[in-house]
């Protein structure tokens, strides 16, 4: 067991979170993550209405009695979803842990805190982590440039971003983006984080509620098989490389406005692909950690293997390096 400020604060066995994932963060995935001793998040906006989210929370509770949370992603939109109503459903359902992501979560943080809900805010820059800390969040999850989804516009990889954030952030912090095995967990702890958050790696598990073809595509892909789209609209998103992402990149290179790519990147189109198994039908979110994915384990097997590998690295591989140094010094003195 690896005990950190994160495991203590959120009452889970392992310093591992499954971040919010549009279309994927449903009861089928979140319950096994909770049962395996990690912290899973349902994705609020995957549910069509706040009432549906309330029911999805109840459905998850039927499948686990361990803690789990809900992700609320706040993105700019022409017709924004009823965020306050989703928030009310989360509170009314008795959820005690929320992952917020996106823009200016102050009003949400205030309401969650007033109702005894712990908030982990996910962000992509040290300055945003500090601003969330000032807003009163309980923990930070910081996404490096490697992450699937929205990496921000600064392009700072985790190897720099995590220790830079750890230097100044006082609340517990998860490292996110590019994590998929025990080596990553040990590295994140060494860089100053209290645990890891993963998205892509959880998509390639038996329980992830997406078509088998996507899981197989992740096993077959290498670490180069992602694209950054929407860079020219200052809303960068990292997605799996496919026919659609390549077309979007091409149109952006031509300087086309968002209206010209909107039909290609519609959420409904992505969902159709996820359900039908056509990996070229729409865009789908994944990070370059796909290059490390070689199998499709159960969620419990994945979490157990990550923890066991991290423990072995810390205790044996790194420990033996120290032992060997001490032995050489002792021999030199003798
Ligand atoms: C399929 C998928 C959908 C995602 N959707 C969301 C989302 O709706 N809201 C959010 O905050 N993050 C979302 N993310 C980001 C993850 O929560 C997490 O921060 C990211 O995947 C970490 O990088 P990794 O994929 O390298 O582990 C998504 C990631 C994936 C893979």
From TrEMBL:
Under the heading Pfam families, the entry gives: NMO (PF03060)
Gene3D superfamilies in UniProt: Aldolase class I
Q: What is the source species?
A: Novosphingobium cyanobacteriorum
Any one GO MF term held by the record is: monooxygenase activity
User: Which CDD domains does this chain map to?
Assistant: NPD_like
Q: Which domain of life is it from?
A: Bacteria
Keywords, A to Z, come to: Flavoprotein, FMN, Monooxygenase, Oxidoreductase
Know the name of this protein? Nitronate monooxygenase family protein
């Amino acid at each position: 067991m690896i005990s950190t400020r994160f495991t203590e604060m959120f009452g889970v066995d392992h310093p591992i979170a499954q971040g919010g994932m549009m279309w994927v963060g449903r009861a089928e995935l979140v319950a096994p993550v909770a049962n395996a001793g990690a912290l899973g998040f349902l994705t609020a906006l995957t549910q069509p209405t706040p009432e549906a989210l309330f029911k999805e929370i109840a459905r998850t509770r039927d499948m686990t009695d361990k803690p789990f949370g809900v992700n609320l992603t706040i993105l700019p939109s022409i017709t924004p979803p009823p965020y306050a109503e989703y928030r009310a459903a989360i509170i009314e359902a008795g959820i005690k842990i929320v992952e917020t992501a996106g823009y200016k979560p102050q009003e949400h943080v205030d309401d969650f805190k007033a109702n005894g809900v712990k908030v982990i805010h996910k962000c992509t820059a040290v300055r945003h982590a500090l601003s969330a800390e000032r807003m009163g969040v309980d923990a930070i999850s910081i996404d490096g440039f490697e992450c699937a989804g929205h990496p921000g516009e600064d392009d700072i990889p985790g190897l720099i971003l995590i220790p830079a954030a750890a230097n100044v952030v006082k609340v517990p912090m998860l490292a996110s983006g590019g994590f998929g095995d025990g080596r990553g967990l040990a590295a994140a702890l060494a860089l100053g984080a209290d645990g890891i958050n993963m998205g892509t790696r959880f998509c390639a598990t038996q329980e992830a509620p997406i078509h088998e073809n996507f899981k197989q595509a992740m096993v077959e892909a290498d670490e180069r098989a992602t694209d950054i789209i929407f860079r020219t609209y200052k809303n960068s998103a990292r997605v799996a490389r496919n026919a659609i992402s390549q077309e979007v990149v091409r149109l952006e290179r031509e300087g086309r406005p968002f209206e010209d790519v909107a039909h290609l990147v519609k959420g409904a189109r992505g969902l159709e692909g996820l359900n039908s198994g056509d990996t070229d039908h729409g865009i789908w979110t994944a990070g370059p950690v796909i290059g490390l994915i070689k199998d499709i384990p159960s969620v419990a097997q994945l979490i157990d293997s990550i923890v066991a590998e991290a423990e072995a690295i810390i205790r044996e591989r790194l420990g033996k390096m120290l032992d060997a140094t001490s032995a050489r010094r002792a021999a030199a003195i003798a």
